[in-house]
Amino acid sequence: MKQDQSTIGYLPEERPGFVKLLLYAIQQVIVMFPATVTVALVTGFQVSTTIFASGLATFCFILITGKKIPLYYGSSFAYLTAIASMCAAEGFVKVDGILPTEAIQYAQFGIICSGLVSIVAGLLVRFFGKKAVEKILPPSITGPIAMIIGLTLAGNALSDAIPNVTEVTSESIVWTMVALITLISTILYAKYLKGFLGQLPLLLGVLTGCAAAGIAYAFGWGNLFRSMPAAALEASIFRFGDGSIFAVPAFSLPKVSWSAVAAIMPIAIATIPESTAHMYQLDIYVNDVARKKGKKTKYNLIDLLDRNLIGDGICDMISGAIGGPAGTNYGENISTMAITKVFSVPVLVVASIIAMIISFFTPLIQVIYGIPLAVIGGLEIYLFGAIAAQGIAIMIEKKVDMFSSKNIAIIASIMVIGIGGNYAFGGNIPFFGLQVPCIAGAAIFGILLNLLLSIGEKKTAEEETEA
């Protein structure tokens, strides 16, 4: 290579220098934290175990997919209500924000079984081809699904960024200001920083937000930093001394529970179009970087969809086997790669190792707990919005006909069911006595509507040529 093109970005097989590699990896870990840790906090799973599971599953995913797909595996929001309903049915209650070990063990069994759904989907792609899946999941479905994934999380972002208080206090003002500082600084870093620093906007944004919170605390305007609950340390399977330095995450083995399977396993249907949408996003952005770097070879990442789905399913099983929540590959990390143009698989390998290491060291877990919610909220506004924007990019790239009555019907239905279900019913749509997660419901309805409207449809000349 005649010139250094690292500022353009890194392709999946490319490896940055050691310092850059480490910083890029830390950035990937940081952007994974808000959602992954939030899932653990909301469900009552152990944070340290959840972080370790995300790192281990990511490492395994990269090996399973032949080190070709740059994706990070993290906890999925799609399973939140399913786990909550299972615990409510069994009478389990969180203590100090953490579920009893037995409740987690029952959920683990359901999570392991949910992995089978993705594996079967991947095998269908392998034996019947990507075209068969594209007929079921065309861009008119994967695009809006990516959009509602980001948009249904908008409430989480704003509730983290803006305190819900009836009267203004100095702390509420500082909270909102820190969130704004985090958001605006991250956007400015992404827009104006060039070269190496231009590839670290999210890491720099978090540091800027934490610095702002630190200044506010130093001047006595309020303490936004949080502390780790005692129950998080007490559940550790081994602690060195009092556990203040080193504590093994609270690993647990699954227990058979068919009610957990009934509640959790069907949710995996929602993660299949989500994961497929992520592959389309990657394919678009990686090839864009390749073109800018003058690469003549096309990266057909979407052709690896079967490996991606199989890897997703196996990773659910791995996470569930040790006590972590169910997950999927992460839109937040894809957003980070799209913003920074760093799609290096070695970066994600290092990120997975860093996550696993962090889970064993109590001071590092305390640092994670300590990041102000205002900082996380400011970052989430950008990241969740970027996920939605990438859904639009899918439809533009794949030239979805927005004047087609069929496409408009599919896109409109998915958007309203997904977003409306989230804001009208809190994420679960009551449907003939069933509580259907809005993203899963929107995906299933969109798929069925597309199949119905495709009956008797004539192939275009382009489709006949491809066939």
Describe it for me?
By secondary structure, the protein is mostly helical. Helices cover 66% and strands 4% of the residues. It has 20 helices and 6 strands. It has helices at 18-43, 47-64, 80-90, 101-128, 130-136, 139-151, 154-161, 170-192, 201-218, 230-234, 258-264, 268-292, 305-322, 331-340, 345-358, 362-370, 373-397, 405-425, 438-453, 461-466; strands spanning 73-75, 238-240, 246-248, 327-329, 428-431, 434-437. The longest helix has 28 residues, at 101-128. The chain starts with 17 loop residues before the first helix and ends with a helix. The mean pLDDT is 85.
| Helix content range | 55-70%
Termini separation (Å)?
Answer: 38 Å
Distinct helical segment count: 20
Q: How much strand content do the residues show?
A: under 5%
Q: Specify Rg, calculated over alpha carbons.
A: 22 Å
Mean pLDDT: 85
Poorly predicted residue ranges: none
Number of strands: 6
Shape: globular
Which strand order do you get reading across the main beta sheet? Answer: 1-4
Structural category: mainly alpha
Instruction: Summarize the biggest pleated sheet.
Output: 2 strands, antiparallel
The succession of helices and strands, N to C, reads HHEHHHHHHHHEEHHHEHHHHHEEHH
Quick overview:
The chain has 467 residues and is mainly alpha-helical. The protein has helices spanning 18-43, 47-64, 80-90, 101-128, 130-136, 139-151, 154-161, 170-192, 201-218, 230-234, 258-264, 268-292, 305-322, 331-340, 345-358, 362-370, 373-397, 405-425, 438-453, 461-466, and strands spanning 73-75, 238-240, 246-248, 327-329, 428-431, 434-437.
